[in-house]
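Q: Structure tokens for this one, please.
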Amino acid sequence: MTEAGRRTLSVLGICAAWALTSAAPLLKYLSPAKAIVALALGSLSIVIGMSCLIRLNRRPRTISIGWFLLVFLALTAAFAILYPLSLRHTLNIGSDREDALRIELLAVRHHQYPYDTRTFLGNPPTPLPGAMLLAAPFFAMGHIAWQNFLWLGLFFGFTLRFFRYRATALFYLAVFLLFAPAHLSDFSSGGDYLTNFFYIAIAVTLFSQSLNHSLYASIPAALFLGVGLSSRILYAVILIPLLSFTLQRTSRLRTAVLFFLVLLSTLAVTLPVFWRHPLSQLLLQLQQNGIKLRYIPAVIHPQWTLPLLAILVASTAFWIRMDLPRLFLIFGAATFVMLAPFVVTFALHSDKLRYAFFYLSVSTLSFSLWALSRYEHSGRNTYLIPPAERSPRTA
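A: Here is the predicted structure, written as tokens:
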């Protein structure tokens, strides 16, 4: 395929990823006609923006940090306006994801089992102990939602390091955080889905970069990754492409030591919460997610087949040469095949959960990291070298 064809597919992929997580909230609050117009205008804006990226990246002067500060301040303003409304539930019944962390930490503080509690919507809490540990300092300050700002700021730094050009990082943050209604709603209501992805992406990147240094420098990154992985069981699937990535860059012995530390950190955070009967209580907590599969025919045993399918997709990492963007691509694909079936069945069968496409955020955010990384790479190969300076290999 030509470079122009790859760039076109990247543009279409970014448009699809944005539309996938933006269509549901637009359809929820707008008429179908207005929602379609909004999706069309948003997609057109993405196409125009991506066509400008290559020209912006060719400029000798880089994008100012002030633009990133402006996006951060815009997200802060949205939080300041929308978060109080979400607590009053004036627009709808609201999200109970922040409440889930709050009641879990309240139970732990009173030496009670956190998963016997219920949120204000009557749902059992699902964040695992890693999410509780990372939210605990903000719970002590009285505002769990404030953790979103810490991880948002760190995620801004992550994108600046992940992408080759600042313009691409700014485009990613603006499109998928500021102008993606589902993501903006989760952030401004104190939800932790975005935050979970932020610290997993940061932890994986720190772990991958630590492989270029001594084993001792890798230990903190491995321990932090283990804590992040214990936030939600979904993220365990990233260990498979990460294992392939690590084996391609270091020895088997060092890989074994580092992954032992990751798993040890995960268990050290997770098991004490289930201290009475660790294995049975942990399995019971994980089975609570089975209710999300209730609209999928039981004959195909989705509770087993969907994770196995995700593992198969993630295992493709052992047959390709890995880099960090491909790791996020495979992780996004693996989570998509696990999450999309129950999200689609929600949309078809449940009025209450018809707009639950926010579950796909982790998949779309991961895929878009890869797509934009490849897009700027193809643009660099084709356009950023002046014709007179191209070598025979790059011309």
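A few notes: The radius of gyration is 21 Å. Confidence is low (pLDDT under 50) at residues 381-395.
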